[in-house]
Amino acid sequence: MTRPDLVVRSRRTVTPEGERPAAVAVQGEKITGLYDYAAPLDAAEDIDLRDLALLPGLVDTHVHVNEPGRTHWEGFDSATRAAAAGGVTTIIDMPLNSLPPTVDVAAFEVKLRAARGQCHVDVGFWGGAVPGNAKDLAPLRERGVYGFKCFLSPSGVEEFPPLTPGEVRQAMAEIAAFGGVLVVHAEDPALLAEPSGPTYREFLDSRPGASERSAVEQVVRLAAETGVRAHILHVSSAECLDVLEAAQADGVRVTAETCPHYLTLAAERVPEGATAYKCCPPIRSEANRDLLWDGLARGVLSCVVSDHSPSTAELKVPDFAAAWGGIASLQLGLPAIWTEAARRGYGLADVVRWMSANPAAMAEISGKGAIKVGNDADLVAFDPHADNLIDASLLHHKNAVTPYHGSTLKGAVLTTWLRGRPVDGVPHGRFLLGEQ
């Protein structure tokens, strides 16, 4: 056996087979062996975490970095620092909220130039499907985006308009022809309304769960017709679950995700004026939250990703009708989910499946998402018992706005390794480009 560069040992190593004592050997950037916890291995560096957990780096396929154009909201340096601090070693950047949006190859090149040399974790990219750019989808895929995002309702930024049902079908047919994936913000605009006032209840009433269900029904029908692989983003309403479950049972190629805020927060506990909680679709009731957990446990929802959508504090005015809708939580997803998962009787292996293995599989990112031989040595030392008092001002997010401020979460990331090297403040993340 070649002498490993690094061995990391833990009595709580989370592998695809479950949690067990193990020693993980790393040579260069790859995992080269999994051994008994106490195996004698002559490594250049040997780290024993003892009862601290060793996880694979998390994979967050839903991150709004916003650079270029809205870099004062977030940027590649700050976003990827936050990711690493939260145990996330791979992100996929969304195509909107940057200027220009990633809707053609020229715009993608602008984004790549903006990100170059700034990334502390590995970064992939989604392209956008908007009215009139069907001809740009195949070239974007060839250049390396992992798939395409569209909206069925207004996105909140005028440069990224929604698709009509006919345009969705056209995009699906185009994407199916080259074997891609369409990821969909699914709210039916016909069932949305302007909030009737500034309170959270009025905002919530303006975006009912029925709007999500109706949009998911449309996506399922069109995916069945075209054969495209479709993925429903940020499911907040349990009204979608039976539609998704039936479609999956019928062989429709549709998967779905939810987010930490839908699994850990509840409408009943949103303070009035606390617009750090505002997002679209909205945080719903405690009873709805319980049903989302059930859908996750049954595999109807397969991924838990952040939908990190930050903004400046000035845009979070204390009026739910007027405030920017987006939650900043990239650094906090792991402790937030672990806190609630542990309370409900789930283990670290479940969390890793939802937050690492399944997102990597959904986006078809090779070499990520699991501690196994041949994969990148993306590793996280995690203390599952630590009490973690959240101070927004200490986060790496560019703007100190998060609904978790002041809460105590369970679990803390101690060290993050990217391809065998500790993330140490020097950017050594790479661009991950899909099949070209």
UniProtKB/TrEMBL annotation:
Top-level taxon of origin: Bacteria
Subunit structure: Homotetramer.
Presence of the UniProt keyword Metal-binding in the record: yes
GO cellular component: cytoplasm
Entry's family note: Belongs to the metallo-dependent hydrolases superfamily. Allantoinase family.
The name this protein goes by in its record: allantoinase
Stored NCBIfam families: allantoinase
GO biological process: allantoin catabolic process; purine nucleobase catabolic process
Cofactor(s) annotated in UniProt: Zn(2+)
Keywords per UniProt: Hydrolase, Metal-binding, Purine metabolism, Zinc
SUPFAM superfamilies xrefs: Composite domain of metallo-dependent hydrolases, Metallo-dependent hydrolases
Enzyme Commission number(s) from the entry: 3.5.2.5
PANTHER family, alphabetized: ALLANTOINASE
Pathways involved: Nitrogen metabolism; (S)-allantoin degradation; allantoate from (S)-allantoin: step 1/1
Domain Amidohydrolase-related: 54-423
EC supergroup of this enzyme: hydrolase
GO molecular function: allantoinase activity; cobalt ion binding; zinc ion binding
Gene that produces this protein: allB
